[in-house]
Amino acid sequence: MSGPARPRSRPTPVSGFPELLPAQRLVEQQVLATLATTFGLHGFAPLETRAVEPLDQLLRKGDTSKEVYVLQRLQAADDTAEDDGEAGPGLGLHFDLTIPFARYVLENAGRLEFPFRRYQIQKVWRGERPQEGRFREFTQADIDIVGRDQLPFHHDVEIARVMVDALTRLPFLPRFRLQVNNRKLIQGFYTGLGIADLDEVMRLVDKLDKLPAETVRGLLVEDAGLSQEQAGQCLALAQVSSPDTSFVDRVRALGVRHDLLEEGLTELAEVVERCADLTGPGVEVVADLRIARGLDYYTGTVFETRLDGFEGLGSICSGGRYDSLASDGRTTYPGVGISLGVSRLLVPLFQRGLLSGDRSVPSAVLVALPDEASRAECDAIAQGLRSRGVATEVAPTPQKYGKQIRYAERRGIPFVWFPASAADGSDADQPAGHQVKDIRSGEQTGADPGSWRPPTEDLLPRIVVPTGPTGATTDATTEGTTDEGAPR
Amino acid sequence: MSGPARPRSRPTPVSGFPELLPAQRLVEQQVLATLATTFGLHGFAPLETRAVEPLDQLLRKGDTSKEVYVLQRLQAADDTAEDDGEAGPGLGLHFDLTIPFARYVLENAGRLEFPFRRYQIQKVWRGERPQEGRFREFTQADIDIVGRDQLPFHHDVEIARVMVDALTRLPFLPRFRLQVNNRKLIQGFYTGLGIADLDEVMRLVDKLDKLPAETVRGLLVEDAGLSQEQAGQCLALAQVSSPDTSFVDRVRALGVRHDLLEEGLTELAEVVERCADLTGPGVEVVADLRIARGLDYYTGTVFETRLDGFEGLGSICSGGRYDSLASDGRTTYPGVGISLGVSRLLVPLFQRGLLSGDRSVPSAVLVALPDEASRAECDAIAQGLRSRGVATEVAPTPQKYGKQIRYAERRGIPFVWFPASAADGSDADQPAGHQVKDIRSGEQTGADPGSWRPPTEDLLPRIVVPTGPTGATTDATTEGTTDEGAPR
């Protein structure tokens, strides 16, 4: 028997492919569960698509081609003879979840009910240069609604409301701003100004995020051939922003007239108006006429989302209305959707030490092991607790109790259970009967293995948000608890 | 503005990359949630690793190289100048979750607590020829326990018990047989027989799944150079199987003696003995001395699992003890684990029509829409239901109520809510006040939007198992309910 080949040195991370430690992953899991639950409560079905798409689908928009990872079977050249005849255009890893979803809708249209709501939480891959918040592998959480032939406008409002509902259930999130705009508004305004190359102008105005307005003005004149007046009007439009419908008058005051502009103003006003009640301490919904979503496939409403204090991350949650992404030539499936960059949001918070969990294991209880002969008894106690939904593990070895308590402490397990057999004279400090100790407070009480449960807030690991220079933490999992609740 | 390029014909599936319809995916989601919850209750942390590993890690075992998908950036050749300097050996998609986990343990050993329990539910990729139950992209659910320097044997028993606990919570599953063997037992037996090339003999004996015993005997003699007596002994060992520890005497009766054989017999007897209480109507735990797990890295206990009536799928759940997979040269991290082939299990059941869900949406309630002006009121009713955990959607258009009820029926939504405003004389059939209709029974009652909840068993889609030639279904989600509970 040949011994297995082993790695002989410690492996190192691969740039752009972040991985979480167990305590962080327990936080991410709770975040994903909150998102999935919220989307499901709104009637969105939990779709998944395969990780690969035919390359010709992925490369439909030329400017993304650089980012696509192409798949090749290692010995593909050697074994074409025994291959399954599937030639095809080659496969690449998907770089978003919208293109695969549009393809899925076309492929399965006859078996879907429209309007079709789905959420999709999956990894995507882009071969771009890694930087903070930008990875080569990352998790996105998308919601979309797709109709057949037509999709009423109220679904644009619905998509915004559902995502805000989900985000506001993440109490560790800094205050965020959902910025809404409308492609028809921009296109109508530009066309009304007499501009021909709308894409180019949109692309340059999008640079306002990174370049000063005067630089962008220069580019609009020199690169896009706009007059000084046209360039000035484009910049003036991009500066309009309001938390209410007052933006409509400000745009009209710019003096440009076009039917598509009017349509866009009406739609954007409706989104802002019907989301006004969402604005609160943690969230603001605003019309922001600078938002354009680059060269994407959007045709109406567009969304971006920025986090207070994390503007450098860019938009953590983006999307919009796409009326012609999915079409088989006869039938068109218009849609509206929004995509949350889960990794873009969480990984920087982990990396900056602004978010963590208080346990590295799901376990709420460690059953102490008096001696190896008691393992079956301890297993039975643990299984009883599990049957009531309490995550429980049994100590791996019958060390001294002090060591077993430290085993729990190192993992953040809040309770240690001492079986009744442990009290049979073997330890003078242990009273008779089953005992359970809250190792944070040191409090120890008698407990019935058939009915005891920990407090509900101790069932799952807590999400903790370190605050201030002292490193004090606040519990972000449940509102109204204090620092005392978090063990460390 | 250039119009988006569109696919002009209906896309077709990619062989080996199965995708589920929404109702099926809702079933898969419940299955994955059950697995994750069970693993968490046993203290396993929910790890995820990146989808890629360095190729030199993936190719450590030569015979898997054909299956690896290699990643290449589409324009990698063009932009090496602006690349981030990361040269490395190239990346491939992982083909299992054990190799990545071993790498993760080595990479993060200083930040993990041992013994380290983790579960990992992720997609894996293999470029092999697709067939029933064998895919190029599929989901696995793995549990592993890894120690530093040593890992007590009782964890072998624990791994088996945890996986059986999880599988028995899937009530749609046919009866399954967990088959346990021990590599030490096989190695000791073969060595005791004077056989030198253990790997080759194991590889040939493994063919008993597909070839008659006499053919395998011939191969053992001709290919592996065994004597007729040695070949006969190997086949005799492979035929030993028992649901209890009686296998020990049957092996001893074969007359081979070796220390490693004794060690293996003791370990295997302990697993079988300590899992005996698990055997019941849905599961059997047996010692089966034919199981060897091919050329894998196992060093002691090995597991396979077969489903009654689905023997052709092979083992749906396999694993074992690996004492030297993860080592950095100084420290070794022995482990034991088992891996459930979620896609291998579910996709054939879906394809054969033996498993399905009763809804294509999570929604338990459709709020009917009397007219477009009532949308805000209907949204408020829906949001109230959602706040009590009831998945709810609002009808997309104010069609006639008959059509709205059919909208719910087509999706399997069990309840339709008629808002009070709907009864304001607009429909003579509608009594005053809020009404909720169970569209399966037709029963309609008054309901308070501030407190009404559907029966608990209607909160989530049900898993249904069509039985018999009549296509009658039984509800597999909750025990004790009858066919009447399932709407269709």
Summarize the structure.
Two copies of one chain form a homodimer. With 488 residues, chain A is of the alpha+beta class.
Structural overview:
2 copies of one chain form a homodimer. Chain A is α+β, with helices and mostly antiparallel strands and 488 residues long. Chain A is 30% helix and 21% strand. Chain A contains 13 helices and 20 strands. The first copy, chain A, has helices at 22-41, 55-58, 98-108, 154-168, 183-192, 198-205, 213-222, 228-238, 247-252, 259-274, 342-351, 375-387, 401-411; strands spanning 45-46, 52-54, 69-73, 91-93, 116-125, 137-146, 176-182, 241-242, 283-288, 301-307, 317-327, 332-341, 356-357, 365-367, 392-394, 415-418, 435-438, 444-446, 463-467, 472-475. A 9-stranded mixed sheet of chain A has the order 1-5-6-12-11-10-7-9-8. In chain A, helix 1 (22-41) runs antiparallel to helix 4, helix 5 runs antiparallel to helix 10 and helix 7 packs across helix 8. Chain A is elongated and about 90 Å long. Chain A starts with 21 loop residues before the first helix and ends in a 13-residue tail after the last strand. Mean pLDDT of chain A is 89; it is low at 1-6, 77-87 and 478-488. At the A-B interface, helix 1, strand 1, strand 3, strand 4 and helix 3 of A face helix 1, strand 1, strand 3, strand 4 and helix 3 of B. Strand 3 (69-73) of chain A pairs antiparallel with strand 3 (69-73) of chain B.
